[in-house]
Design a protein that fits this description.
554 residues; mainly beta; eight-stranded antiparallel β-sheet; four-stranded antiparallel β-sheet; 38 strands; 4% helix; globular
């Protein structure tokens, strides 16, 4: 059974409230911000598989000025077919709604067939470093703290590893205060050994993943001296059947140790339970997230984890191929997961979409996490095969209605936003520091889009950026819980998630019309728990063991 096979089963009636004003608008700020970027896949007619997958993006504060900058990953020419030069682009935030391209100055104009990106301060020196996955050799760029990056791939012990790498994630799996690195690999592929696939038997077409052997993901342990140890085999992660595209951190068993959720394409998803001794156990089948409800391996692309129903338990979203629907998993009291996509309204709405990047965020600041997925097909000739599928596809923005229901409001929040795109990467961050969460979207062989979120309903937020001292400096793995008379919300500080992308580390809580939160509890990766009372709406920085302070308003 291939990923193009239809899923069987009846469509349940979604629990959706009556339509109303979403309470926010997503404004296309790309041109006004000075973002001039065009993704380049290197396509020249040979129909190479990597050309279908696009590239990712990141929100990061590379110069530590308190304002989010933008990094856009790019492809390159294939050997022997030089058409134009292209590299990733770094845009510095000018603090006035505009950005300046500082790629060359920052030392990042490095030719490579880039795919994904993961950003974190792996050496705890106070400056965010960058790991870029690639078709070929992925690269680690160390931030010098002086506005420049240096390629330390070989020095860090990460060289000599050519692969088809996709998403990556920083996390502290052994809780020693140093960030480790997880890298997804897709399939065994090279231009020299490309497989011939064809629809008509004559002309080459893009192959599906079934045509290639899988490839194991990698796990690198941070040794604390600027180098990494490959612990893929001894950790239990090694698995050459995987065809991995997305990864997210999850504490699915609520033991305070980070587990791993990996979205696989045409292979079962993986849920690696952290055994707290340097090893992992795959419990995806037992947990109910390996397959669809009818027991089939779907084409997992993007993934995110969050407490979307304010139950205190981590929920899961995984985007899949068209005719497979988005998977939306809710955890039961027994720790297993059920796919509630159909009953929530997410499943039926996404049935004809091919999803990639996805994330939970509180778009309208009402205290409930909403769900965004960007879509686009892998082959521009799909219209010749199926009348109900386009190459460019509209995004889905599912507004959380409470009581388990979601409503797609993408067409109501901005005409430019709702326009069909060949969507791939998706990241979130408050680039203009107005308290709501903005969006960055990449497209395959097309432009990147920056959407400014303008909340119009008068709702407020409380935002917190954590700085670890005993924990890793980015506080990746920390859980923050906010309590008010409306209930308790929880957020995890995380790398990875979505598809090939990196969102900001600050966490955002919607307060609705309330002006303050009764209580904020921070569970640091070190095990320290800090408790703060009666915090007003606004933005805060909290240093581990040193307290919380409000940021100046702008």
């Amino acid at each position: 059974m291939t990923r193009r096979d239809l899923l069987l089963g009846s469509l349940a009636t979604p629990l959706v409230a009556a339509a109303s004003d979403p309470g926010f608008r997503l404004v296309d700020a790309t041109a006004a911000a000075g973002i001039q970027f065009q993704h380049y896949s290197g396509a020249f007619g040979a129909k190479y598989l990597p050309e279908t997958l696009g590239a990712g993006c990141a929100f990061l504060d590379y110069d530590n000025d308190g304002w989010l900058d933008i990094l856009l990953i790019n492809g390159a020419d294939w050997p022997g077919h030089k058409r134009r030069s292209s590299t990733m682009r770094l845009y510095r935030n000018n603090r006035n709604g505009t950005f300046t391209d500082v790629t060359e100055k920052a030392g990042l104009a490095v030719p490579m067939y880039g795919m994904g990106v993961a950003v974190a301060d792996y050496d705890n020196d106070g400056f965010p470093d960058i790991f870029v996955t690639a078709v070929g050799q992925s690269r680690l760029f160390h931030n010098t703290g002086q506005g420049r990056y240096v390629d330390v791939t070989e020095k860090a012990g990460l060289g000599g590893r050519d692969s088809f790498s996709t998403s990556a994630m920083w996390f502290d799996f052994d809780r020693d205060g140093r960030l480790d690195l997880f890298v997804c690999n897709y399939v065994k592929w090279s231009a020299e050994h490309e497989v011939f696939c064809s629809v008509d038997g004559t002309h080459k077409s893009y192959c599906t993943p079934e045509a290639y052997r899988g490839s194991t993901c990698w796990l690198f342990r941070n040794k604390g001296d600027g180098t990494f140890e490959d612990v893929t085999a001894k950790s239990g992660i090694f698995d050459t059947t995987s065809k991995s595209l997305g990864v997210a951190s999850i504490d699915y068993d609520h033991d305070g140790w980070p587990d791993l959720l990996v979205a696989n394409d045409t292979q079962p998803n993986k849920l690696y339970r952290n055994l707290k001794n340097g090893t992992f156990e795959d419990v995806a089948v037992r947990a109910g997230v390996a397959f669809s409800e009818d027991g089939k391996a779907r084409a997992g692309m993007g993934v995110d984890v969050a407490d979307f129903d304010n139950s205190g338990a981590p929920g899961i979203v995984i985007t899949n191929f068209d005719n497979e629907m988005i998977a939306l998993y809710r955890q039961s009291r027994g720790g297993t997961y059920s796919d509630v996509a159909l009953e929530s309204g997410v499943g039926k709405a996404s049935r004809n979409s091919l999803g990639f990047g996805c994330l939970f965020f509180d778009a309208d600041l009402d205290g409930r996490l909403d769900l965004l997925a960007v879509n686009g097909h892998i082959d521009e000739t799909v219209r010749n095969i199926r009348s109900n599928a386009g190459y460019a596809q509209a995004p889905h923005l599912f507004l959380n209605q409470g009581k388990g229901g979601f409503r797609d409001v993408a067409s109501e929040v901005g005409r430019e936003f709702a326009a069909p795109k060949v969507g791939r990467g998706l990241a979130s961050g408050d680039f203009d520091r107005d308290g709501d969460v903005d969006l960055l979207i990449t497209t395959n062989q097309g432009p990147a889009f920056l959407y400014r979120n303008d909340v119009t309903n008068g709702n407020r937020s409380l935002r917190v950026r954590l700085v670890g001292t005993k924990s890793n400096r980015d506080a990746i793995g920390a859980v923050v819980r906010l309590s008010s008379p409306d209930g308790t919300q929880s957020r995890m500080v995380k790398s990875g998630s979505s598809y090939l992308c990196q969102s900001e580390f600050a966490v955002t809580f919607g307060l609705g019309k309330r002006t303050n939160a009764d209580r904020l509890v921070i569970e640091w990766p070190s095990g320290l728990v800090e408790d703060y009372k009666n915090l007003a709406a606004g933005s805060y920085v909290c240093q581990e063991t040193r307290g919380i302070q409000a940021m100046a308003r702008y």
